[in-house]
C-alpha cells in the first residue's frame, strides 16, 4: 500500500470537512458540486397537501408603475383544489374570497395569469383550511384593504406562513415595500386605487356630477 503524503492527507481532510460545512465554499466554488442542493423542495410526508401561490399581472396599474421598475401583482393561494385571495369592498366583513385556481376570468378582465410558485406543503385538512380562512377574514376585512399597506399579497403572505411556515417571494409585493421606503411613490397614485372607501367616494362624486339636474 502506498503511503499518503502529508499534502494528500491535508487535501483529503479538507474535502471531508466541506461535505458537511459550506463555510468557505464561496472561496472554492468547486466544492459546491459535492454539497446537497438546499433549494430543491422536499417531497411531502403522507397526508400533506401542496401550497401553491398563483400570481397575476394587474395591467391597469402596471402601465403606470413599470417605469419605476416595479409591478403590481395580485396573488392567491391554491390549496386543496381551491384558490383563496383578498380584495377590497366598503363593508366591515371579510374580503377573502374563493375562486377556481388560475381562472383569471373570475377576477376580471384587467387580470392576467402570470405564473405559479410552489411554496411548500401543509398538514391542514380542507376543513381546517376553511376555518383558518375565516379567522384571517377578521383581519383582512374588505373595508381595510389598502393597495400598499394591506393588500392581497399581504394576505397570501400571512396565509402561507400559517399553512406551512414559508413566505411568498419578495418580488410579488415589492411595490408595497418600495412605497414604505419612498413615500412619494404612494402619493403619485390616484387615491381611488388605494382603498375601497376612496373608490366609493370617487364614484359617488362622479355619479352626482353626471346626473341630470331636475327642474324645480
TrEMBL record:
PROSITE patterns: PPPDE. It comes from the Eukaryota. Residues 49-193 form the PPPDE domain. The keyword Lipid metabolism does not apply. GO terms for molecular function: deubiquitinase activity. SMART domains: DUF862. Keywords: Hydrolase, Protease. The keyword Ubl conjugation does not apply. GO terms for biological process: protein deubiquitination; proteolysis. Signal peptide: none annotated. Pfam families: Peptidase_C97 (PF05903). Belongs to the DeSI family. This is PPPDE domain-containing protein. It comes from Pieris brassicae.
Amino acid at each position: 500500500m502506498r503511503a499518503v503524503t502529508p499534502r494528500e492527507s491535508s487535501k483529503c481532510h479538507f474535502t471531508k470537512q466541506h461535505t458537511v460545512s459550506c463555510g468557505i465554499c464561496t472561496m472554492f466554488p468547486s466544492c459546491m458540486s459535492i454539497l446537497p442542493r438546499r433549494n430543491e423542495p422536499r417531497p411531502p410526508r403522507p397526508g400533506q397537501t401542496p401550497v401553491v401561490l398563483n400570481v397575476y399581472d394587474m395591467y391597469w396599474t402596471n402601465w403606470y408603475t413599470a417605469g419605476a421598475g416595479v409591478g403590481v401583482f395580485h396573488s392567491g393561494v391554491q390549496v386543496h383544489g381551491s384558490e383563496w385571495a383578498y380584495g377590497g369592498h366598503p363593508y366591515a366583513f371579510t374580503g377573502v374570497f374563493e375562486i377556481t385556481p388560475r381562472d383569471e376570468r373570475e377576477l376580471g378582465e384587467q387580470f392576467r395569469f402570470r405564473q405559479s410558485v410552489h411554496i411548500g406543503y401543509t398538514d391542514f385538512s380542507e376543513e381546517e383550511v376553511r376555518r383558518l380562512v375565516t379567522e384571517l377574514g377578521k383581519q383582512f376585512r374588505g373595508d381595510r384593504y389598502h393597495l400598499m399597506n394591506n393588500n392581497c399579497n399581504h394576505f397570501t403572505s400571512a396565509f402561507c406562513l400559517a399553512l406551512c411556515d414559508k413566505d411568498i417571494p419578495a418580488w410579488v409585493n415589492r411595490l408595497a415595500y418600495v412605497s414604505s421606503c419612498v413615500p412619494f411613490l404612494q402619493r403619485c397614485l390616484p387615491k381611488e386605487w388605494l382603498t375601497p372607501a376612496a373608490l366609493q367616494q370617487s364614484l359617488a362624486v362622479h355619479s352626482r356630477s353626471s346626473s341630470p339636474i331636475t327642474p324645480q
